[in-house]
Specification:
5 strands, alpha+beta, DNA polymerase, domain 1, about 15% strand, single chain, 5-stranded mixed beta sheet
């Protein structure tokens, strides 16, 4: 039995230790917000947080999780009582109309959230370095504006 701390809950399932975290999240625990993209850790569609750091869940075996805390897109919003509430990034994503097809967006949001946690007022260089996720629709300029809006660095920012 494999037990993983996901979004503040201990979840358990029978699975092989080599099972990628992505498939454990999606298939075993029903958390389908994390997407499969390339399967090689390159595109970022599968981005989650492991102890607050960005991780590509398609290349992290569940045996490597140990006592680490996994956070997925499903837990990005919310308040102390667990009620749904948009994270500043999610609100900025809407205001800047970032998504087109939307497939990469959960991974983009998780990468951006880790960036803002580490650097609340990121420079363009910080954003470029942190946002290595791929977007086939090419919404990178909107992503940058949304990150700055969420950080309170753009006109009309909520933060």
């Amino acid at each position: 039995m494999t037990v993983i701390n996901v979004n503040g809950r201990r979840l358990a399932a029978e699975m092989d230790g080599d099972t990628p975290l992505l498939w454990a999240l999606r298939e075993q625990f029903g958390l389908t917000g994390t997407k499969f993209g390339c399967g090689a850790g390159l595109c970022g569609a599968c981005t989650v947080h492991l102890d607050g750091k960005v991780a590509r869940s398609c290349v992290v075996p569940v045996s490597a999780i140990g006592k680490s805390k996994v956070r997925t897109i499903e837990a990005l919003g919310g308040n102390a009582r667990g009620a749904p509430q948009a994270h500043a990034l999610q609100q900025a994503w809407i205001e800047e109309q970032v998504p087109q097809c939307g497939y990469c967006q959960s991974g983009m949001l998780m990468a951006a959230a880790a960036l803002l946690a580490a650097k609340p007022k990121p420079s363009d260089a910080d954003i470029d370095q942190a946002m290595s996720n791929l977007c086939r629709c090419g919404t990178y300029n909107r992503v940058r504006r949304a990150i700055k809006r969420a950080a309170g660095m753009e006109p009309g920012s909520a933060a």
